Amino acid sequence: MKILAIETSCDETAIAVIEGWGGFTSPTFGILSNAVASQARVHSKWGGVVPNLARREHERNLSLVLKAALMKGKLMFLKPRPASAPLTNQKIQKIKTFLEHEPELFRRFKQSILPLAPPSVDAIAVTYGPGLEPALWTGINFAKALGALWDKPILGINHMEGHIVAALLNTNIKSPRLRQTKRGRKKSNIAGKNKKAQSTNITFPALALLVSGGHTELVLIKKWLDYKVIGETRDDAAGEVFDKVARMLQLGYPGGPEIARVARKGNKNAIPFPRPMIHSQSLDFSFSGLKTAVLYYLRDHPAYNKNDVAASFQESVIETLIAKTARAVKTHKAASLILGGGVAANAELRKQLFYKRKAMHKGLRLFLPKKQLTTDNAAMIGAAAYFYALKKKFANPQQLHAQGNLRL
């Protein structure tokens, strides 16, 4: 099953084509293409993402990113639409209605997308929350227009589900196809490289630690599509605090990679920053107090060592995340642990989870996404959509709306 996926929840314009097979028991994915247009430079001077600027950039980028994704996936054919798929006035009017609030997007869509022959995909998936609603709407309306143009069903996907399944994605795996043998018999190539894919199967119950700029959550997964948030931040998300502390230290944006870079040169035990709620039996997080502690330390120690501050702050966050995760694993007897979200790219967090996993629960299996798939991308949205497509849980375009505060 091939799915074209669109992700515009924040400041990344992303479109991917993934192919999934194996069903619910052995879900396996191949990434045919994964195109991303970053807006980091646009927002860096503001120190954070500006919603209306993000929406404007999505309008400018979506058509270009779509063509890049289709070309990479060898699904775009530069030829006129076939007679079997006529472009009627009724269809054009429907597309115009879907894009009536994005005139720039409609202009680009009409110019570069309308003439294309429909690609060979089975469905179109799009993030509908959580995220910045102006940005989400752009992707949703673009998906609706494509669905109308190509007569494809649409799947609305929760962005956080994408971060959960990102650990299943393997860019080295090819989709199973039949090949001709010397004797003329057909044989599947699902063995070999694809045999390796079976080791990525999740054993349930599973626990997901999702850490990003907008969320810090512990999610219990009893089976695919059965998610329950059992712990979350009560104030600032971990990724958000990374950004704010980076700003205090006059580092660049986004703050997560900058903190990690500087922390490598520092002493993580130099400053005893608090570990918020680490002894509480609750599985919730709180990072606003840690942010304030860093602020006061910088105020009271004007000759501070930037490397030590970054390393000590990072260690405080990581120790808190791992302590809460360990408690959740033991309480719910999780067999698998999944790390997801932008902060999942943090090398120190990945290393400590790897070495401490066995102490959490005997036989616990750890699933880490590829670093390039930790930030917002459409491949993970396509993978999450695969499970909904199996159950034919398609969205009604008229009822698909942006939900900025959507929960799992």
TrEMBL record:
Reactions catalysed according to its record: L-threonylcarbamoyladenylate + adenosine(37) in tRNA = N(6)-L-threonylcarbamoyladenosine(37) in tRNA + AMP + H(+)
A GO MF label: iron ion binding
Cofactor binding annotation: Binds 1 Fe(2+) ion per subunit.
One GO term of the biological process aspect: tRNA threonylcarbamoyladenosine modification
Localization (cell): Cytoplasm
Family that this chain belongs to: Belongs to the KAE1 / TsaD family.
The protein, known as: tRNA N6-adenosine threonylcarbamoyltransferase
UniProt organism field: Candidatus Ryanbacteria bacterium RIFCSPHIGHO2_01_45_13
Organism ancestry: Bacteria, Candidatus Ryaniibacteriota
Gene symbol of the encoding locus: tsaD
